[in-house]
Amino acid sequence: MATWSDVRHLALALPGTSEKVSSNGQCAWLVQKKGFAWERPLRRADLAALGDTAPAGPILGLRTADLEMKEVLLASDPKVFFTTPHFDGYPAVLVRLPKIATKLLKDVIVEAWLAVAPKRAATAFLQQKKAAPSRARRRAPK
Fold first, then answer.
1. What is the pLDDT of residues 58-95, one digit of tens each?
2. 27 class by beta-carbon count within 10 Å (0-12 exposed, 13-18 middle, 19+ buried)
3. pTM
4. pLDDT for 142 beyond 90
5. Cross-strand partners of 21
């Protein structure tokens, strides 16, 4: 079960990320002033649209690279990922935070960051990530 603390830790570990707290106390994580993850409690219209399937508990909003990736995530695990009519036509998914494994949370937060990060920052991050395992193998004792 993931927590807001996990979200905060994972998001702020990404280059250039900042945290913004709104006047109602909800957090959003941004890179270059572009949001990629945010607290998203369900609103009255969301509850009406979802009816009995409306989840309880903390909800995380995440940007996706495009609408196709949104559909892939929604189909991959409907117990974790969902959407509301508010997000129709917008590349974002909602996440039932208590239902997502921390490893998957990390992966989708990184993908959300990559969707909005400046190209240079994203490229540098991916190159560093790709190089890290090979460095670790060279240092590993035999």
1. 999 999 999 999 999 999 999 999 999 999 999 999 99
2. middle
3. 0.89
4. no
5. 27
First to last CA, the chain: 36
Q: What percent of the chain has pLDDT over 70?
A: 93
Distance CA 54, CA 46 (A): 8
* Distance from chain centroid for Cα 137: 29
Parallel/antiparallel/unpaired status of strands 27-31 and 92-96 = unpaired
- In angstroms, the CA 66 to CA 31 distance is 18
Q: Which two tokens stand for residue 49?
A: 């649209």
Q: Say if CB 28 and CB 12 are below 8 A apart.
A: no
Residue 65: CB atoms within 10 Å = 14
CATH ID of 4-139, from 3.40.50.300, 3.40.640.10, 3.90.1150.30, 1.10.10.10 = 3.90.1150.30
User: CA distances (Å), 126 to each of 39, 61, 67, 82, 98, in order?
Assistant: 26, 23, 22, 28, 28
